[in-house]
Design brief:
The protein has 544 residues and is of the alpha/beta class. It is built from 24 helices and nine strands. Helix 12 crosses helix 17, helix 14 (276-295) packs across helix 15 (307-317) and helix 20 (445-455) crosses helix 23 (491-505).
Length: 544
């Protein structure tokens, strides 16, 4: 019978274990110096060599002719452990033997001396699956086992183990195997098996395996079954990496605000019986790739894809800004978390895409930051189109003209008028009608900003470098950023600002602008914005 590669090429000596030198070196030294512990704990992700090292250790402590700590794999003990005829080495699957009775039987059996080997070794795989009662039953035996018993515990979720178990074991953490080390092992196995494996194919298999050599060997086995050369194209086909064009179509629809296209793609996937939760996961991973490409110079080692798809991702990322990517990740993650509790997952996915195509429909901070960024870019470049004016920080798409903000007359900060050049060098400051007393600086303004950094981060960002003045029953805001007035006109942020001021002063104030006596730049930036919007026929109280 054909034996799959990951079983056929399982290491039989510590030197053959790939990528875990920090573990194998320590174990070899303990074996050579005869400093064998009574309990070991091997932790790490799947396919990294935990069970393999446990079996090698079980043979090494019982081998009749050890070679520098490694088992000889030739004596009757080593061969008996390999073929299962030596009953002194017991491998237990804790996932199916996790009860108290199972551990009690093990504890009673451990009192008997070995029949053929020197030590009775218990390898308990997936030990985190044991019940609380089973852990308690194992505890005393694990603390003071008989001299002829060694426990080797293996788990992928070490955080689920009780502290009382952890403190009684010698712990070894297995790392994810680096793609370079995995590629070397794949080339060695392919050479021994007569498989034509290219360098690009080996590296792609290694990245797909995500640090698990067992998964890499299984994928190599699958690719070899197709016949011919195992290159990047063959690996892409075998691993199911092909056919992901719908992700690029969806991300293009989001950045171009093409709602019909996004809904059309979802309809096609639904008709093809694709699970919407899986589609959402794939789209999250797609935006993660875009985030990595935008965040670092070379993200290829962190992205599992073919070279052609990587070029596509780089092209797509060039059309995206980081706020838009983070907004997409935030919305999709919320939808994915909510999907298990809804009846129609398709509707959830469609709703998420509509929000992404129209950020003004999403009230989250990420959507607001995305819209603000668009407005800042427009102001910085001096270009302000009709669409941008109606929704200045979105990725595009005009806002419904009916959706206008109607703040309280008392709270709305009016636009500052354009100041004409006065003939006198020092014009007198005109006091607003609402200012009954001379404004004085608000001493607790830094504390107010500190509170806003927790309750309204976008507002805190645009108020950076601002100051505030108390004038009777009003607080006058002096903010150099022209976006501050727009944000304060938003009911959510206006209320957050009023509440922060009340928390610090104990009083309920109205809000207003602080008009400076002179503008060194020659023109008030808010007035410039108002002038552009007036030219377009858009009043300043639009929700933009």
């Amino acid at each position: 019978m054909y034996q799959v590669l990951y079983r056929k090429w399982r290491p039989k000596a510590f030197a053959e274990v790939t990528g875990q030198q920090h573990v194998t070196k320590t174990l070899l030294h303990e074996l050579q110096s005869d400093r064998i512990a009574h309990a070991y704990l091997f932790t790490g992700s799947r396919g990294t060599g935990k069970t393999t090292c446990a079996k090698i250790l079980a043979k090494a402590v019982n081998c009749l002719h050890p070679v520098n700590g490694d088992p000889c794999n030739q004596c009757e003990i080593c061969t008996g452990i390999d073929d299962g005829s030596i009953l002194d080495v017991v491998e237990i699957d804790a996932a199916s033997n996790n009860g108290v009775d199972n551990i009690r039987d093990l504890r009673e059996e451990a009192t008997f001396t070995p029949t053929a080997a020197k030590y009775r070794v218990y390898i308990i795989d997936e030990v985190h699956m044991l019940s609380i009662g089973a852990f308690n039953a194992l505890l005393k035996t694990l603390e003071e086992p008989p001299a002829h018993v060694i426990f080797i515990l293996a788990t992928t979720e070490v955080h689920k183990l009780p502290a009382t178990i952890l403190s009684r074991c010698q712990r070894f953490d297995f790392k994810r195997i680096a793609p370079e080390d995995m590629s070397k092992r794949l080339h060695y196995v392919a050479e021994q098996e007569g498989i034509d494996l290219t360098e690009d194919g080996a590296l792609l298999i290694a990245r797909i395996a995500d640090g698990a050599l067992r998964d890499a060997l299984s994928l190599l086995d699958q690719c070899a079954g197709q016949g011919g050369t195992v290159d990047e194209q063959a690996v892409t086909s075998a691993a199911g990496l092909a056919g992901r064009e719908h992700l690029f179509t969806l991300s293009k629809a989001v950045r171009t605000n093409d709602v019909p296209l996004a809904l059309e793609v979802v309809d096609g996937l639904h008709n093809a019986s694709r699970d919407m939760a899986r589609v959402c996961e794939e789209l999250i991973n797609h935006y993660r790739h875009l985030m990595l490409i935008r965040s670092m110079e070379d993200a290829s080692r962190y992205i599992v894809c073919s070279s052609q798809e990587l070029d596509q991702l780089k092209e797509e990322a060039s059309h995206y800004t980081m706020p838009a990517i983070l907004h997409a990740l935030s919305v999709l993650q919320r939808v994915l978390d909510h999907m298990p509790s809804v009846a129609n997952r398709r509707v959830e996915m469609e709703t998420a895409l509509v929000r992404l195509c129209n950020p003004q429909l999403d009230g989250s901070n990420e959507a607001l930051v995305r819209r603000m960024e668009k407005l800042e870019n427009a102001l910085r470049s001096g270009r302000l189109s009709s669409t941008q004016a109606q929704d200045p920080a979105s990725s595009g798409g005009p806002e419904d003209p009916k959706e206008t903000l109607k703040p309280e007359a008392e709270e709305k900060i009016p636009a500052s008028p354009v100041l004409e050049k006065a003939p006198s060098p020092t014009p007198a400051r005109k006091r607003a009608p609402s200012e009954e007393v001379e404004p004085v600086p608000l001493a607790c303004w830094p504390e107010v900003l500190s509170e806003l950094s927790q309750t309204a981060k976008p507002l805190h960002g645009v108020l950076d470098g601002s100051s505030a003045y108390e004038a009777g029953n009003r607080v006058l805001i002096d903010a150099p950023n022209p976006l501050a007035k727009i944000l304060i006109n938003e009911a959510e942020h206006r209320d957050a600002l009023r509440q922060a001021i009340q928390n610090q002063t104990g009083r309920r104030y109205g809000l207003g602008p602080y008009r400076r006596e002179e503008h060194p730049s020659g023109q008030d930036p808010i007035a410039a914005l108002e002038k552009k919007l007036d030219a377009l026929g858009i009043p300043m109280d639009k929700k933009s």
